[in-house]
Write the structure tokens for this entry.
Amino acid sequence: MNWSKYSAPQAFYPLAGQLIPWFAIVAVALMGVGLYMGFFVAPTDFQQGESYRIIFVHVPAAWMSMFLYVVMAIWAGVGMGLNARLSFMMAQAIAPTGAMFTFLALLTGAMWGKPTWGAWWVWDARLTSELILLFQYAGVMLLRTSIDDMRRADRSSAVFALVGVVNVPIIYFSVQWWNTLHQGASVSMSTGSKMAATMLMAMLIMTVAFWLYSIAVVLARVRCIVVERDSLPVWDEKPAVSQEVAEVR
Amino acid sequence: MQWGSASEFFAMGGYGLYVWTSFIATALCMGWEVLALWRRRAAARAEQRAGLLGDTDETTA
């Protein structure tokens, strides 16, 4: 199979349309399983009581905020290197979802910080660098909307995204490099997990669910962008329009 | 299962406000994003059809 043909927007458009329902269905199913495990199977934490259950949205959202930024930067880089329009469109489509997860990581973090630390917000390295990530997403999106010429908008926001990727390892390692109020990693590649097995499982399932959700949403946004930019011939046949709407529902 | 009753579940051991705000905010954001994309898609398609009928944006705008 020749995958490179899908780098053309008109070939990618129907493929994305076929993939979206599958990612969406599995994402919703896993969210159901993850929430059930998180609320009904995972035990009460002996130190934090029930407040720790915020972890089941906080950590997946925070991981996605960083992961999506890296993926966005990679697409931006590919777009710069190959001068590929679809790559820039992918980068453009990822930014709002990444910004949303960054916002949610900060909000749920505040909700967790108040009962455990006694403060909604502290200026420690982890929280501050994550806040900067939110500004970076905003910068990527604002830069794009402020430049009328599409090619220049693509390149400018791509450069901005690529330079900003340096903040992602800073966020990730901030709890090791600085003395932060934010706790260190509960799950690590080298030392394994410090959590109860069911807690960890629920958190990982929610993470996979958020990841698949992100793919579905980003593909849907790319399709919108393709149509908006090219105001284009309809690539899927007329009869498929009603069928597709039904699929999305 | 650690919940004796529904009210115990919603109370979340006294942390209900924080826990439910987190989960509801996450659900609202995701729901809003899906809805916004749906409307954006509908708008893009409407524009697409209008373009096919002949009155393109380039000439009118």
Notes: Confidence is low (pLDDT under 50) at residues 55-61 of chain B.
